[in-house]
Amino acid sequence: MRNLIACLGAGSLAALASAAYAAAPNPATTTIAVSATVTKNCSVGATAAAFGAYYPGAGNMSTTSVVTVKCTKGTTFTVALDKGTTTGGSIGQRLMTDGAAGDTLQYNLYKDAAMTIVWGDGSGTSQMNAGTGSGMGTGLTFTAYGQLPDAGTNLNAPPATYNDTVTVSVAY
Fold this sequence. Notes:
Layout: H1 2-23, E1 42-46, E2 61-71, E3 76-81, E4 94-97, E5 104-110, E6 129-132, E7 140-148, E8 168-171
Antiparallel strand pairs: 1-2, 2-7, 3-6, 3-8, 4-5, 5-7
């Protein structure tokens, strides 16, 4: 009998505790405010523009470089090309140099395949490219059309490897 009373007593206490918990108010709650600010951002990349082997007197040479710009969605931007690093070069007439000897080859970079609109920084008659970002996951591509004319001082260039470095700038 004692065992029965003890079991009934324990069962009653468990039932009372369960009923008390069910009648208790819900646990305290709060919220977490979550936020982020997306800022304007752009990145740019470009492929090399290699003319290859130039044989003076054999005709003009051409090449291309693909410039890829990725900007946050809705961000407007402009893409400018500078004059290059060769001393004496300008946006209107870019130059490659053979280095220490100081010899140069004339070339230029254009916005159009017809090679009539110099791609520069907007100074003089040069023009920049422009666009609106579609997101950092996708980019807009622009082609820089390069021409090495088979004329003028290029016809008298001595054999050597000629180089220049043009900086691509994206303003947004």
